[in-house]
Amino acid sequence: MIQVLCAALLWGFAGALAGRLMGGTLEPAILVPLRFFGSFLVLLPFIWRLPPSHKELPRLFAIGLALTLTQVSYYLAIHLSSVATGLFLQYMAPVLLTLYALVRGESLSRPKLFGLGFAVVGAYFLVVGPQGLAGGLGIAYGIASAFLFATFSYLGMGMHAHPLTVLGLGMGVGSFLSVPFTPWQKILELSAMDLAAVAYIVLLGTVVPFGLFLWGVRKIPARVATLVAMIEPVCGAIFAIFLVGQLLSPLAVLGGAMILCGVWLNTGVSIKKSSGA
């Protein structure tokens, strides 16, 4: 689980940093394809040194497609509604995975189900707040991003290929699909500071955290991994205090505490049992 916690921490900082950068020349239409291209180039040696088996290639393509469409639907959601709406709806992924687990007959205790609900309400308080969700087509894209993130996480379970190989091929799929929509002229006009920021987001906002997340879903169920990843907005909100001076309201603080409590209810009991065994 520590891998997913570290991933959420890095995602939170990268998200706060990206929020600051996107007000300038690094608009989403530039940052998203560069994130794919840069990550693919960084991970290319891992694909070469640690190639996957041919049997896993169709599933790897599906993972890459799910990852790409997750990013696209998320940015369409925030473009057509708001950042808060897109982020909150994407973190409905653990709800979808929990429903899927229940349909398949998996037995989940009441504390775990209560913890999930607690975390979802907390995410609403922290991310959305009193202004509520923005309506329109953005909500549909936000729900789609939740489904796709859940699919990406679920497909990542049980893979025999190295997590960085899985991620590298996924980023390769995203790079290929991004080529026709990439504003190359704007990219060529980026400053050295912009490129340095992109390099940080590629390495510590994408390659390392996504690699850690894929490593994590090999050890814990995707349902739990996506719930633990909900700590991301908590970390992002804390980092935003120092990066952009955005203070937290009492409701946001309550929401963050509820997320942490919900995660603990789904992980703390099992950790306690395993340590006592």
From TrEMBL:
It comes from the Bacteria. It is a multi-pass membrane protein. The keyword Cell membrane applies. The keyword Cell division does not apply. It is found in: Cell membrane. InterPro entries: Diverse_Substrate_Transporter, EamA_dom, EmrE-like. The chain crosses the membrane at residues 28-48, 60-77, 83-102, 114-133, 139-157, 164-183, 195-217, 224-245, 251-271. Residues 2-127, 137-266 form the EamA domain. Keywords: Cell membrane, Membrane, Transmembrane, Transmembrane helix. Belongs to the EamA transporter family. This is EamA family transporter.
